[in-house]
Amino acid sequence: MSGRKRNTVTKRNIENLTDDKTKAKKQKHSTCVVSSSVFYLGAGLSVVVSLALFIYLIYRDENEFETLVPATSKVKRSFYQLPCSNDYQLEKFEACKPKTCGRVVMDDLIDEDDALHLLSVAKKGLALGGSSGGASILDLHSGALSKDNAFINIYNVIKSEDIDLLSIQDFNIYRKVKNQIHKAIAREFNIPQDKLYLTKPTFFSRMNMKEPSTIHDEYWHAHVDKETYGSFHYTSLLYLSTYEQDFTGGRFIFIDENSNKTIEPRLGRVSFFTSGSENLHRVERLKDGVRYAITVSFTCDPRQAIQDPSYK
């Protein structure tokens, strides 16, 4: 699927519409689920035109979506190539930073049994907490778990209440799946695997039909991962539920100039992409049901690396 027309919604196009930096730091556990965009209206006709274009690109009619990979089709590998934005030019990580940018979808990378096992981990972990709004996260690395309008530490809860919740097998399968995604990203983007590091936030997410209670619940705003979190170079998602089977709405939308490109979640489907402004995106607001996924994030910066979670 290479050779498509260049996505011209770049960092320059959205410089007046990026997330508030302070809010983004407070929301560091919530990547694509809790990112929010704010509009800054400057003076001059060019700013007004850019704003109008941006709003049109994001909120165009749903019939204008182009589905890259539907939930009803199983694909071994789908690669949608894009020219890289200028976001990486000043970085020193020559061996790792993207030379080719784009989006990859794979349905055969992760065993379905492993995906189902991780779905069970997400469900039992999130059962101890849950946001008062529609978006909840569980981060096994830091222990962060959504609870009402804040976060608690799941390991503290397990210890204080003497709950036998997470097993060695849970962590082994989590690590196995992470390693498979890590290897696939390095292979598809032709970078050394040992120069690519797991980074934060990496977490389970659950979306349901509760009305948003705080800004953390507004997962549907457009954003660029590298703009929001700085360390990101490659973003991946493993879907743990299926569009139009477990939920409606909730599609993953890349915001391009010619048409919005949509990936429909499917149990076991892995989607990964370069994290710069060539891949401006959002999640469609859920219409019904419950949507589960895992976001797994990678960086070229060894200073931003995190370790695998372990059985405590």
What does this structure look like?
With 312 residues, this protein is an alpha+beta fold. The chain has helices at residues 11-14, 21-26, 31-34, 45-59, 112-126, 154-161, 168-188, 225-229, and strands at 66-69, 78-82, 101-106, 130-131, 135-138, 144-148, 150-153, 197-207, 234-239, 247-248, 252-254, 261-263, 270-274, 281-283, 288-289, 291-299. Helices cover 25% and strands 24% of the residues. The strands form 4 sheets. The chain has a 7-stranded antiparallel sheet. A hairpin with a 6-residue loop joins strand 11 (252-254) and strand 12. The protein is globular and about 50 Å long. The termini are far apart. The relative contact order is 0.22.
Biggest sheet architecture: 7 strands, antiparallel
Strand residue content:
15-25%
Could you tell me the number of beta strands? Answer: 16
**Helix percentage range:** 25-40%
| Continuous helix count | 8
Residue runs with pLDDT of under 50 for 5 or more positions: 1-62
Radius of gyration: 19 Å
Arithmetic mean pLDDT: 84
For the largest sheet, list the strands in their spatial order: 2-3-13-9-16-8-5
Q: Which structural category fits the helices and strands?
A: alpha+beta
Ends: how far apart?
Answer: 44 Å
Instruction: Name the helix and strand elements from N-terminus to C-terminus, one letter apiece.
Output: HHHHEEEHEEEEHHEHEEEEEEEE
Morphology call? globular
Descriptors for this entry?
alpha+beta, 312 residues, 8 helices
Write the layout of secondary structure elements.
Layout: H1 11-14, H2 21-26, H3 31-34, H4 45-59, E1 66-69, E2 78-82, E3 101-106, H5 112-126, E4 130-131, E5 135-138, E6 144-148, E7 150-153, H6 154-161, H7 168-188, E8 197-207, H8 225-229, E9 234-239, E10 247-248, E11 252-254, E12 261-263, E13 270-274, E14 281-283, E15 288-289, E16 291-299
Parallel strand pairs: 1-12, 4-6
Antiparallel strand pairs: 2-3, 3-13, 5-8, 6-7, 8-16, 9-13, 9-16, 10-15, 11-12, 11-14
Helix pairs in contact: 5-7
